[in-house]
Amino acid sequence: MPTPIPPRLHVLLARDSRMAVVIRRGPSKAVAVIGWDRATDRFEVGQWFRGRIYERRCDLSPDGRHLVYFAMNGQWQLEVLGSWTAVSRAPYLKALGIWPKGDCWNGGGLFVNNHEFWLNDGPLRHQTMHEAPGITRRRECPVPGGAYGGECPGVYYPRLQRDGWMLIDHAPDGAGGDVAHFTKRVDDDWSLHKFAHETLARRAGRGCYFDEHSLVNEATNVVAAHPEWEWAEVDGARLVWAADGKIFGGVIGRDDVTSVTELFDGGSVSHERIRAPY
Fold it and tell me: Could you state, in order of their start, the residue ranges of all structural domains in the chain?
């Protein structure tokens, strides 16, 4: 029998609070949105969704209270046109504002602040079903820089740069795809490097967009490669990352991360119907 593929995890950290949202995918058409209180490392399932949430086109407001996401259930005959961008109260999916799309180009967006967000509209524009109370739309991307196309990099790469990642290179990978190389300072010696792949050559358990990571000590030239980390970020004095369907935390040691603690097991949650409390 084939080895079971663990859930895929992607995380959105709030910039001005200790809240976060984990987007857990697995099986391929089952997605859970999970709240993470980083002050206590407590995790709580918000809601499940049958379909696809494009995690790289999502964002969390600076205070962690609201989520903008792009979703697709493929039911093109419905009023939401089978795909839509929505704003909800994190970590739930019940829409406060919703903009039907009807295809999977563009979609999603970025929060400018707690009360404004940029809708990633594109030439094939969204319709408007409901505006989110107290949250207004901006038509221009809040992050200056290059355009990255109408799919996931168009939101993901500006989000990374807004959140302190520096784009080093964006070039062909030699195998028919591209890779964007980002870096972020951990401390005076160490940097975290993110390699965001865009490829049609899919690997088991990975989509056409996936990330790999490494840690680099510029003072000693030590490189600790972590291709198994599908998401990683600097969280104050610690590093946090996702691998094999789990979230871990640790601190930088002499040659790599140390004092590693498992914070969350994405395989421990199962589908349940949860009503949003609003």
Answer: 8-268
